[in-house]
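Technical note accompanying the year-one report. For the benefit of new consortium partners, we illustrate the data format agreed upon in the data management plan: each record pairs a sequence with a structure-token string. No post-processing was applied to the example shown here.
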Amino acid sequence: MNSAGVQTTRVRLPKRWNREQFASADTLLGANHIRVRCIDGVTRMGRIKGKIKKRSWIREGDTLIVVPWSFQDEKCDILYRYLPPQVEWLRKNHYI
């Protein structure tokens, strides 16, 4: 907490040089796949990577970081899920 009594959180941002971007989880499809709506306006089939699959549950409406596949643009890998305080910080600072 800082002097104003507001807790600051460390927020991971997408790495543009690595083609990462924001996305929102639309529909849960099962078998570790989710339909996501990316910030560039494209709806993609997202695959939950093993590292994130073990650590956190992804639900519809969650804000995510995804990386589109280089050889199939309609598919992507899900790298990170934001928690509600992090999403609030991103909106307040005009990232999303």
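Partners are asked to follow this layout when depositing records. The CA atoms of residues 10 and 54 lie 22 Å apart.
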